[in-house]
Each structure stands twice: as structure tokens, then as C-alpha cells.
Amino acid sequence: MPSVTGDPWLLTPGPLTTSLSIKEAMLHDWGSRDKAFIDMTARVREALVALAGAEETHVCVPLQGSGTFVVEATIATLVPRDGKLLVLVNGAYGHRIVTICRYLDRECVLLETPEDTPNDIATLDDALASDDSITHVAAVHCETTSGILNPIEEVAACVQRHGRSLLIDAMSAFGALPLDARSVHFDALIASSNKCIEGVPGIGFSIIRESVLETCEGNSHSLSLDLYEQWCGLESSGQWRFTPPTHVLAAFDRALVEHAEEGGVAGRGRRYSENCRALVDGMRAMGFETLLSDNLQAPIIVTFRMPADPRFDFEEFYRRVAEKGFLLYPGKLTVAPSFRIGCIGRLGVGEVADALDAIRATMTELDITQPGSAAAE
Ligand SMILES: *Cc1c(COP(=O)(O)O)cnc(C)c1O
What we know:
Elements: E1 9-10, H1 20-24, H2 35-51, E2 58-64, H3 67-78, E3 84-89, H4 92-104, E4 107-112, H5 121-130, E5 136-140, E6 142-143, E7 148-149, H6 152-161, E8 165-169, E9 188-192, E10 203-209, H7 210-213, H8 227-237, H9 246-261, H10 264-285, E11 301-305, H11 314-323, E12 326-327, E13 329-330, E14 338-342, H12 349-365
Parallel strand pairs: 1-12, 3-4, 3-5, 5-8, 8-9
Antiparallel strand pairs: 2-10, 6-7, 9-10, 11-14, 13-14
Helix pairs in contact: 2-9, 3-4, 5-6, 10-12
The structure holds pyridoxal-5'-phosphate.
Residues 13-14, 66-68, 71, 93, 140, 144, 169, 171-172, 192 line the site of pyridoxal-5'-phosphate.
């Protein structure tokens, strides 16, 4: 079945398929300095802090832009210019944090594991024990490059034991995978409007420990990316410092209501897990192979190895599946040729079954009966 708006289903890591009611929430105009919009901003900030179980300890600072903008802003604001960040890397988003440090001129070390291997706690423990100059650690909860779930609770416990500050890129996990500030110690958790909360793109946010943020005046090299100043503006007037993405916030406000109606993190996580199970089972039944074993797979996006058959051309496969109403996602791995299929957005096992039908029909058209996998390069 096509979507209500006739658009293809987005089996991607975001932007995602959104509900009709979330799209409809944008059919109004708001004055950015008017009470209705100020109230909306406060409501969204409070709902996000509550989702993280952080009402007692943290504040939510939203920022205009895509997820990367707020990752960069969080590092710029929280890591002082003479600080040093250790980055746990097992994919492109960890590498992006390293690149951000280079731009911001923050000293940085990386601890890397392969893209199909979770963060290694023992080497993190050693690194923090042997280098006193490391002030902060950055970790990626679900590394969207492969779809791997990193052991964020253990990372947080290790960083806390060493008395360092943890910044979590939870962009593709927040809202679907549990992460509670009362049990996981972090100073910042970063995510955006258009992933598991199912809003439209345009807002990132950082949930920051208030006692830490209070000390961050003057750290940022950038006016527009200064989350300390953004926070002060919001606290003093309830307003965003610069033109806010009004329609995006209205959609996000509505998305948070629908997230709660679905049963919050548990409900959303359950639907995505069902989508993921159906997708993996259906693809394996066709002979496709997943990169990750099931115990490492987050129910967000699944990486499939590129079939070995030389007649399989991803561009052609993508085009034919898209014609049938489903947009897949290219791979981003360095360890093996691959492509990805997302489980998130406003879709359920019915849409996954339809997508599997479209993929099966495409494989028949291409006359490929045993996809298997290409040898790793
Ligand atoms: C999507 C994503 C980001 C941000 O990407 P943008 O394209 O800037 O929105 C950052 N980290 C992770 C893990 C992501 O999945």
C-alpha cells in the first residue's frame, strides 16, 4: 500500500516517513516571539528532558539545524579550549566527532574498533587510567553506519569511575532505546527531531547536566553554536536567540505527543524491534546476509552484505525497489560492500512485508536466486 500522501516509504535512517498528523501540524504560522510559540518551546524542552529521565539534573537546549550542528555545538560548548576529548569510534559518526575536534581545535584521541565490533571497555579503562589529560569522552549509542548497538551503560560506568565527562551521540537511538540519566551517568546526550521521535528535520537538541552547563560560558568559538548562550536566552525570555524553525518545532511537538501515545520509549522500541525482526528474517529467507549477528544489531537500521552475483548492481536494485514505493539506503562501510535498510519512521510490519515483496519481485526481475555475499575487500 502506498503512504497516505502517495510518497514512497523511507526505509532510511532519516529523514523518515512521518505520520499525516505530524505533517498537518505544520499547516500554521507562528510568531516566534509570541506566547503560543514560547509555550511550545518550553513544552518540547520539558518532554525531552523527561524522556531522558533527567528532570532533576539536566536541561534541554535545542538548536536550529541537522544533528551534526548540535554535535558540533555540544563539543564546542562543553569541552574547554584546553580540554582533551577521547572519542570511541566504530563508524562514520565517531569519525565525524574527530573531524569536529579538528575544526574546533580541541585536542582529541580516538579509540577505534572495527565497524562490526562494539566499543571496547578494557582499552577505554586503560586509556583513561594512563592519560590524566583526557577531560571528556564521546561515544555513539547506535552507530548508524552499521546499525551496531554500543555498550553505552558500560561506557558510562567506566567514564564515571574515572571522573571524566561523557558526551553521548544518541542521535539514532534516543526515543526508541532506553537511556535514563538516573542510571546512566552522562553530561550531554545529543539527538535530533527527525529520527526515533519521528518529527521532521531541522532541530537538534542536547540534554546537558545543568551544573556543567553553568560553567561553560565563553568556551564556544562560535556565536550561533554556543549552547551556553542559547540556554541563557531560553531561560531568560523563553525565546530562541535567532529565527527558530517554527514549523519544525510544531511538528516535533506533535511527534512527542504521538510518541507518548505509542507508549513512549518502550512502545516505540517494541514496534521498531518487530520491524527489524521481520526485515532480517525476510531478507535472510531470500538469501541476503546481515553484517552483524543479532546480538549486536540495534533495531534501527540493518546492514546487508552486497550480493556476490555480478548481475547485482545496487543502483539498478535501488531504482527498481524505489519504483515499487520503497527507498533503501546505500552502505557507508569500509569493511565490506553493503547496503542498508532502516526499521524506523511511521511504518510497521505491514509496510516491512510490502517492502520485502518489492525486494523479492526485484530479485526475480534481475534473475538472481541466491544473493549470498561478496567477499570482503
Ligand atoms: C543522523 C546521525 C547524526 C547526524 O546527522 P545529520 O545528517 O547531521 O542529521 C549524528 N550521529 C548519528 C549516530 C546519526 O545517526
